[in-house]
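Subject — a protein and its fold
Fields — amino acid sequence, structure tokens
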Amino acid sequence: MTAPELPTGVIDTRDMVVVHIYMRREFRLAPGLVRAVEDGDTRRAGTVCAHLEFLTTTLHHHHTGEDRLLWPKLLERVPEELAPIVHLMEAQHERVAAVLEGIERVRPQWRSSARPAERDELARLLDELYVSLSEHLDAEEERLLPIAARTVTMAEWLQLGEEGVKDNRKQDLPLILGMIQYEGDPEVVAEIVSHTPWLIRSFVPMLSRRAFRKHALAVHGTATP
């Protein structure tokens, strides 16, 4: 049996940061999108709800990958005094997941009715989600990523990204990359793409900016939200 590869240095975790940038932006804007929909406008509610479903699905896949592939490795390897930071990440994921459950309950109701009651409840839940998610992303970047950079191998880190890509629908990949490209460091984005499978690497970058522009115009009314 081959011994597992062990960390030998500090790895680059900036790819996680550029993903966080797009999540912060889109979840910050989400409550306002909902509140702007007029009573009974089910067509616009459908557009906004499809956008919300895309966001919450990608967030769920992102967190599931960390729950499955990152937290257990860190808890096995970090000194005991650092374990509470990992447990904080787990607890924050649980809080985010609880709010997401509420969003998933209200979102289809509002999509079909576009009534003010469901609209206001959905917007309230999205406000709550943004606060919890921002707190988590800040803590992850400031406290967890420096530990992860010294604790997991580059191969393990890349596996985390690969799992996130695999779990999303292939038709969503250009838009996901476009979301990241919009405000992400171009050097880091290029590095992310370089580690993707050949099929993705060959066609997704050509489509991603166009996909983001089309999506942003439909959802936000501007290509530069």
